[in-house]
């Protein structure tokens, strides 16, 4: 069964058509990206998948169930890291466990190994303003990992980071993805980021957002960054740019 299967999805807000005839799927364990111009409806698509928007036409199936009827939580990291400033890193990480009413005695056993794995050991009691941008994003991702869901939706998680930190975070994300075996849907404006990370890339047009191209990135893993300079990726980039420029 597909983790996510979207067919003929249409979404309008009053007179504005935002999404048109979206067809998209994710197989278990895949890393899938969507690139598209600003305002093409990517965030709206995420809100439909997570059930925040319930009115739409077409089919949106998660683990076989229509998204409106899917009652399990879905890991979703919005564009901003959204760590609560008045809670420490540890207390922020605890939120999904509090929401799902996990017994308090289990919290540290779940959180501390991930803090270690995410390179945040020693910062458990730090407040978000005491962390670097990359650390805050790792903290927000850690919290997302504690939501028990195979499907993870990441909305431009590295958009606000400087170029070097961003590259480090991409490599790190691939490592944790491969270890934890999640199915990821990743939104980005950055074509190189999409090609470096993904098994497949969906390219959307400007509003109304349609999927104009699907690229299978047939590069071996672990990925080498040099592939982005090789002819096959250059050709992908030319095709993607053509669509993004309309
Ligand atoms: N609740 C709403 N009511 C009316 N229009 C909306 C609503 N939410 C989004 N829109 C419109 O839908 C379009 C798509 O918005 P959305 O935020 O999904 O785009 P996006 O691709 O995520 O943009 P960006 O890349 O800039 O974050 C925009 O034109 C926006 O103004």
TrEMBL record:
Residues 1-231 form the ABC transporter domain. One of its GO terms (molecular function) is ATP binding. Keywords: ATP-binding, Nucleotide-binding, Transport. SUPFAM superfamilies: P-loop containing nucleoside triphosphate hydrolases (SSF52540). InterPro entries: AAA+_ATPase (IPR003593), ABC_transporter-like_ATP-bd (IPR003439), ABC_transporter_ATP-bind (IPR050166), P-loop_NTPase (IPR027417). The keyword Glycoprotein does not apply. The keyword Cell inner membrane does not apply. PANTHER family: ABC TRANSPORTER ATP-BINDING PROTEIN (PTHR42788:SF2), TAURINE IMPORT ATP-BINDING PROTEIN-RELATED (PTHR42788). This is ABC transporter ATP-binding protein. It comes from Propionigenium maris DSM 9537.
């Amino acid at each position: 069964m597909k983790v996510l299967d979207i067919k003929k999805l249409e979404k309008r807000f009053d007179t504005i058509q935002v999404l048109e005839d979206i067809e998209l799927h994710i197989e278990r364990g895949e890393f899938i990206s969507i690139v598209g111009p600003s305002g093409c409806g990517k965030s709206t698509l995420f809100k439909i998948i997570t059930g925040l928007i319930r009115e739409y036409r077409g089919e949106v199936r998660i683990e076989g169930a229509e998204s409106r009827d899917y009652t399990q939580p879905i890991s979703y990291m919005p564009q901003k890291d959204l760590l609560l400033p008045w809670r420490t890193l540890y207390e922020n990480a605890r939120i999904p466990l509090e929401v799902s009413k996990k017994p308090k005695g289990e919290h540290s056993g779940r959180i501390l190994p991930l803090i270690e794995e995410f390179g945040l050991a020693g910062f458990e009691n730090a407040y978000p303003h005491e962390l670097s941008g990359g650390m805050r994003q790792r903290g927000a991702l850690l919290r997302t990992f504690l939501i028990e869901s195979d499907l993870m939706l990441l909305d431009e998680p590295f958009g606000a980071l400087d170029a070097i930190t961003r590259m480090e975070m991409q490599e790190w994300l691939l490592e944790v993805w491969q270890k934890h075996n999640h199915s990821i849907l990743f939104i980005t404006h950055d074509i190189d980021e999409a090609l470096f990370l993904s098994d497949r890339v969906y390219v959307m047009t400007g509003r109304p957002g349609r999927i104009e191209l699907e690229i299978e990135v047939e590069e071996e893993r672990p990925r080498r960054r040099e592939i982005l300079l090789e002819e096959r990726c250059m050709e992908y980039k030319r095709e993607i740019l053509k669509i993004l420029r309309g």
